[in-house]
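A quick aside before the break. I want you to see a complete sequence-to-structure record at least once, exactly as it would be stored in a machine-readable document. Don't worry about memorizing anything.
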Amino acid sequence: MSGGALHVHQATVGELQTAASTVLAPLAVTAPRALTSTGVEAGAFRADIDAAVVGRAAVARIRGSGHLVQRSARAISSTDPELLKITLHRSPEPAAADQGGTQSRAHSGDFVVFDMTRPYRLAVADDCDVMAVGISRTELGRHADTVAGRAARRLPADSGAQAVLATFLQGLGSHLDELAGPAQAHAGDALVSLLLAAFTETEPGRMDTATELVDRIRVYVLANLSDPSLCVDSVAAAHGISARQLHRLFRHTGIPFAAWLRGERLARIRRDLLDPAQDGRTTAAVAARWGLHDPRHLARALKSQYGTTARDLRRER
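That is the input. The structure line, written in tokens, reads:
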């Protein structure tokens, strides 16, 4: 799903399948045929779908009739994005989740994770109300395996970070149309942070030291993005490790340090270029605020990352 919002009222099963496959990845959606004692279909299938891209995640809310969602082995392609799907269930009846031999029943107020790179099944009952978030594994970095390791297991959202995330998602689902430009980017950043908080809670003293160091490095870098001298050597020195160790740490996250740093800077530059409040600042000034002082490098990087130019970003608001 590349952008904009999707709204389908009273969708058919086929329309729900198309929407779900567009927002996430190819899925099969079927619905049971409920019959009366005379053999007549008891009620037509209905579903209301609201979906939008929020930052670097896809968010959807589905309400309506019961249905079965399946991601089969045949539907999985090497060209599909490596997504994790996080669902929040607000249905009166429990949903049945199944992936890799793990099965659970998700009650109202429960989260369930699915790894979209593997087959899974999710059956929801009538009057379903489900929020779904599709997010790339790379967005979660090293934590992606931790989140994926919870696949098909229910996680109650009745306290702590899980409750905060659930409240945030419910509000998001009601205001998808109202987010654009910088607001959408900020909401996306908040969503990723809350997902990490909710699904990677670890008891004190149990956190892997390498993971803890990577998190400290990320916090340090994000606090110093405006420093143009920020680089592998300076960050490594600030944390008492060698540049080689820093490269090794980030190799395990799935994205090299330099690529991650560039992506974080470009994401903020793009957000500011889309913000009308920044119209009084030149593109060069916006880029310099986030540590990029070479206009030619910025132009190439924006084109490579987003397929557009700074001028076009400001025009598309």
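Two observations worth writing down. The CA atoms of residues 182 and 275 lie 6 Å apart. The two ends are 19 Å apart (CA to CA). We'll return to this after the break.
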